[in-house]
Write a structure and sequence with these properties.
Length: 392
């Protein structure tokens, strides 16, 4: 086997999913993660079609279902909490739904025995030669690997070190969002959720963890903003400034934001690249082809991509040139289909009075039209843009 020792940057979903399959095929996987451990919290993620097949082949469906969630009714309300429109149960759920933090922990538990995890550290340099890659770290000593995989998300460090500044590849969709956990102070039941919107803003509260807590989300429309994506205090202040003075449950949610055990903020953006590989380095998941949360397919693409990348490395007997090329060829149609799902994101956070009014009318009539089924079926159609090989 030509390539044996593989470094993976990122311990969220894509990285551990890749490590799972590399272990099966006899590779030596090491995962490096900037955070001190597996990150908790996050929003609900779901699986459809081929992604479900991957989970079944991992024999992890039973374990994942222990943490399964299911989005309930979504209700659009006004400032007095009066119902304006609603969507039925399952509109935003796939075949299987789970909170991102719970999934990351399941993958970690399934791989920690055979994968080396380096937490609280990061890559500072990648130097390739004919025989491998020398990787320098912020805290650890430099080490040699055969390959480096960037599975480190939208703001990928591996991508920046290998391909250049992210501004070349980032396509901003005009929205920023934050999500964090709160007590279920609104007493929401059965994983139901509420959305309240004003011009250029949307706030949501969804029941979570069997109704014992809730997830709050803030969205606002904006051109691209220069900010430190590692400075949580700065990000919270951005949310506070944007939503100060808003009605409904917003004042209470802003207070709870400072007490939240988790907080995530980022732009709604896509990563668009002509290639995901360079020499012995390749990108996986959001690092190479983020479709944005508006697509609802990011985690599915990460899990499918991990399965195919590892499978092609095994099939090519570790020849990264052959494996990387086949991985790209197979994944491109799926990525293209999933990124198209995010088109029209501006209707989720309308910036004109007409679009705000029109979006409410669409929400009102959608449950009673054939479009409802089309909206539910579109993600599944995108997911089926790929057929999975059986590497066994």
């Amino acid at each position: 086997m030509k390539a044996k020792k593989i470094l993976i940057s990122g311990a969220s979903v894509a990285g551990p999913a890749l490590a799972f399959w590399l272990n099966k095929y006899g590779f030596e996987g090491t995962i490096i993660e900037r955070a001190p451990g597996i990150r908790p919290g996050g929003y609900a993620i779901d699986f459809r079609g081929p992604a479900m097949q991957v989970l079944e082949r991992m024999n992890l469906v039973k374990e994942i279902k222990k943490y399964e969630t299911r989005a309930g009714n979504i209700t659009i309300v006004n400032k007095n909490n009066k119902k304006l429109a609603a969507m039925p149960d399952g509109f935003t759920s796939g075949e299987l739904e789970i909170m991102r933090g719970d999934l990351a922990n399941v993958f970690y538990e399934a791989t920690k025995a055979n994968t080396e995890y380096l937490f609280d550290d990061s890559i500072t340099a990648i130097q390739e030669d004919a025989n491998g890659v020398t990787v320098s770290f912020n805290r650890s000593e430099s080490r040699r690997f055969d390959l480096v995989i960037g599975a480190d998300g939208l703001h990928s460090n591996v991508r920046a070190l290998t391909f250049g500044d992210e501004s070349q590849f980032m396509h901003h969709l005009g929205i920023y969002f934050a999500i964090f956990s709160t007590p279920n102070f609104m007493q929401l039941k059965d994983m139901a959720g509420l959305y309240y919107g004003t011009l250029g803003k949307r706030v949501g509260v969804f029941s979570a963890n069997n109704d014992t807590e809730a997830r709050a989300s803030f969205y606002f429309a904006s051109p691209q903003i220069a900010y430190n994506y590692r400075d949580i205090a700065q990000q919270k202040e951005m949310i506070r400034r944007r939503f100060m003075g808003e009605q409904w449950q917003v004042p209470q949610l802003l207070k709870l934001m400072d007490e939240a055990p988790d907080f995530y903020f980022d732009s709604v953006s896509q990563i668009r690249m002509d290639r995901w590989q360079k020499g012995r380095v390749v990108l996986l998941g959001d690092a190479g082809y983020c479709a944005s949360p508006m697509s609802g397919m990011g985690t599915s693409m990460a899990v499918i991509g991990a399965y195919i990348l590892a499978g092609e490395l095994m099939a090519a007997n570790g020849s990264h040139v052959i494996a990387f090329n086949k991985y790209e060829t197979m994944m491109r149609p799926l990525v293209s289909a999933c990124q198209k799902l995010a088109e029209g994101a501006e209707w989720f956070v309308p910036q004109t009075k007409f679009k705000l009014w029109m979006s409410r009318q669409i929400w009102k009539i959608l449950p009673y039209t054939p479009w409802k089924n089309m909206m539910i079926e579109m993600p599944l159609k995108a997911a089926n843009a790929i057929s999975l090989p059986d590497y066994n």
